[in-house]
Amino acid sequence: FPTRRSSDLYSLNDTKTPLKNTIIAVLINISLGYILKSYMGIGGIALASTLGTIISAIILFINVNKIINGCINKKTIVSIMKLFISIAPMIILICISNKIVSISNLKGLYQIIMISIMSLLTIISYILIAIAMDVEEILEIKEVIMIKIKRKAA
């Protein structure tokens, strides 16, 4: 998502805004990673990375909207809300799978298999919810896959 907005700015010969945005994102990621690591361990680092990316996307969106007036509209906001709603069940499944793996006595290969199954279920749930909510990016990916399947069948 931030990459798409950066491309918009690059096409307008504005390379400073994406660079500043990237520097801010990296500083946020490092700072939050350092702080959250002591409280949450590796999960804190992952959360810091996610928050850094979200903040970066918001800042970049605001900057693009200043340059390209009207970039942020109702359709864009609805699309973002659909993405966040699609992600919510995925987060819940990740938390549940983390609890299952941590309380079970699974070791080695069995633990890897369990994590793989839970990860696959999480990804499938996200995709199904995103398709059901007509998330534009997921529908574009689905369309590209269908075109490739039709080409191979022909």
Describe the model:
By secondary structure, the protein is an all-alpha fold. Helix content is 86%, strand content 0%. The protein is built from six helices and no strands. α2 (16-40) runs antiparallel to α3 (42-67) and α4 (74-103) packs antiparallel against α5. The chain is globular.
Q: Can you give me a brief rundown of this structure?
A:
By secondary structure, the protein is an all-alpha fold. The chain has 6 helices and no strands.
Succession of helices and strands: HHHHHH
Q: Report the radius of gyration as a whole number of Å.
A: 19 Å
Bin the helical content: over 70%
Annotation, overall tally of beta strands: 0
Which word captures the global form? globular
Summarize the biggest pleated sheet: none
Span from first to last CA?
33 Å
Helical segment count: 6
Uncertain residue ranges = none
Task: Quickly give the structural class.
Answer: mainly alpha
Question: Quick check: average pLDDT?
Answer: 79
Strand content: under 5%
Please describe the structure with a list of short key phrases separated by commas or semicolons:
single chain; 154 residues; mainly alpha; 6 helices
Q: How are the secondary structure elements laid out?
A:
Blueprint: H1 2-11, H2 16-40, H3 42-67, H4 74-103, H5 109-132, H6 136-153
